[in-house]
Each structure stands twice: as structure tokens, then as C-alpha cells.
């Protein structure tokens, strides 16, 4: 058995000293002050004096090693003993070869596939606990925020599709109702109701006004709308949604 040590650095690889200083201050406040997290680089040491981590490169593997605690790109913060692995040095080298193939440098992503994610994967394969939550909390929070935003956009699009589908179904139902009460399928009024022009007008009113026809009074309003196609001199019909209290409300739905 041998110890597995996590080496943690403040990310100070910016060309701007002011930016580097700001990151160090952020880490002091959010990690040292309130224990929330910060902006950190990490690497794992197991067998020998080198530490292993992951970074971006255009070609080849992103897995690399350097002397423990001496990565020149960052400011060293602290070591954390994660536990002890039962694997031999031969097995550990085999794991590192597998990781080198699975973690190409071009796949690096600051929020979803960074050095801390690599160390988590490495530690899991070594059979020791993963990194403390504060090491990668900012990246995980950012990745979660992006995922939530993407899901929200998807749900909005899905809602638009459902509104359109429901409106089409309601239209077909209402056309059937008005056809049954109009005294014959061959009458001019019924043929107008099934025409593309009438369907387009009805559908446009549904989307613009947000109407959801479900009551007898609303069906009657739509019948009047259909009759206006035959009698242009009638006044125009404003579609509204009627509440139980008797008040009328107009709603707008996003266009599909």
C-alpha cells in the first residue's frame, strides 16, 4: 500500500499580475474565509516523486507529470492525503496509460473536463476518496448553470410545440362541432370552415390571443367568426379567455 496525495494550486497562470493577485484573493475569501471553494489546479501523486494531472494541448494526450508541488504555471497551496491504494506500481502505471488514451488534450474544457475532473477519475480508479468538494465547486456550479439554461431553452421550445399541437386539435374539434350544427357538410359555410384560409385565420387568433376554446360561449364565438367569413359586413370578433369570475383576460403566447 502507498499513499495517494492530492496537490492543490491557486490558478495564477495569467499574464496579468493583477489578475493573478485577484484570483489568490478570491480563493482566500471563498475557500479560507467561508469554505465554499475557489479557482484551483490539482494533481495526484502516487508512487515516486512526480504528480500527475491534465491540461489542454492541440495534439496527443493531455495527461502530464512534473515534480510534486513544483508546477511552474501555478502557485502551490497545500497537499491533501486522500488515502492509500492497494495497487502495485505496475497496476498504477497501467491505469495511467489508460487515462492517457482516454484524456486527449484537445478535449479539455474548463467547466466539464478539467484537471480536477481528471484527478477525480484517477482517484476513483485507485480506490481512494475523490477530491474534496471545494476543489472543483466553482467549475461544477458553472457546468450546472449551463445545463439548467440549456434545459430551460429546450422546455420553452417544447412548450411552443405543445401549444401549437393543442391549438390544431382544438381547431379540428371545433370544426367538427360547427359542421354538426350547420345543417349539412355540403353547405358553403361548412366548406369555408374547412378551408385553409379559415384555418389559418383561426390558428392566428389562437396564437395571438392565447385563447383556449373549451366552453359553449367560446364555441359560439368561433361560430360567429366563421359566419363573418360569409358576411363581411359583421363587426370583427375579439377572442378572449373567460375566467370563472366572469372577467375577461387576453393572453399572449409566443409564436411557433
TrEMBL record:
InterPro entries: PPPDE_dom, PPPDE_sf. Residues 214-246 have a biased composition (Polar residues). Belongs to the DeSI family. It holds the Pfam family Peptidase_C97. Residues 2-143 form the PPPDE domain. It comes from Hibiscus sabdariffa (roselle). Residues 247-256 have a biased composition (Basic and acidic residues). Residues 211-256 are annotated as: Disordered. It comes from the Eukaryota. Keywords: Hydrolase, Protease. This is PPPDE domain-containing protein. Coiled coil: none annotated.
Amino acid at each position: 500500500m502507498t499513499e495517494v496525495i492530492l496537490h492543490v494550486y491557486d490558478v495564477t497562470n495569467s499574464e496579468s499580475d493583477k489578475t493573478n493577485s485577484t484570483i489568490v484573493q478570491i480563493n482566500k475569501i471563498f475557500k479560507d474565509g467561508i469554505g465554499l471553494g475557489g479557482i484551483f489546479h490539482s494533481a495526484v501523486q502516487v508512487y515516486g516523486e512526480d504528480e500527475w494531472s491534465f491540461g489542454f494541448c492541440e495534439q496527443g494526450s493531455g495527461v502530464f507529470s512534473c515534480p510534486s508541488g513544483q508546477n511552474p504555471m501555478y502557485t502551490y497551496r497545500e497537499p491533501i492525503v486522500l488515502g492509500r491504494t492497494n495497487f502495485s506500481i505496475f497496476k498504477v502505471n497501467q491505469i495511467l496509460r489508460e487515462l492517457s488514451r482516454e484524456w486527449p488534450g484537445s478535449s479539455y474544457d474548463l467547466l466539464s473536463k478539467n484537471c480536477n475532473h481528471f484527478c477525480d477519475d484517477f482517484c476513483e480508479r485507485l480506490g481512494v476518496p475523490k477530491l474534496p468538494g471545494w476543489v472543483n465547486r466553482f467549475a461544477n456550479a458553472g457546468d450546472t448553470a449551463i445545463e439548467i439554461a440549456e434545459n430551460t431553452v429546450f422546455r420553452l421550445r417544447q412548450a411552443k410545440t405543445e401549444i401549437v399541437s393543442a391549438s390544431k386539435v382544438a381547431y379540428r374539434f371545433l370544426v367538427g362541432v360547427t359542421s354538426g350544427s350547420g345543417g349539412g357538410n355540403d353547405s358553403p359555410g361548412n366548406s369555408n370552415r374547412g378551408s385553409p384560409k379559415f384555418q389559418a385565420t383561426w390558428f392566428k387568433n389562437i396564437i395571438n390571443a392565447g385563447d383556449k376554446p373549451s366552453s359553449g360561449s367560446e364555441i359560439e364565438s368561433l361560430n360567429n367568426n366563421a359566419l363573418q367569413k360569409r358576411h363581411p359586413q359583421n363587426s370583427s370578433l375579439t377572442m378572449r379567455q373567460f375566467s370563472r369570475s366572469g372577467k375577461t383576460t387576453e393572453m399572449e403566447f409566443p409564436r411557433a
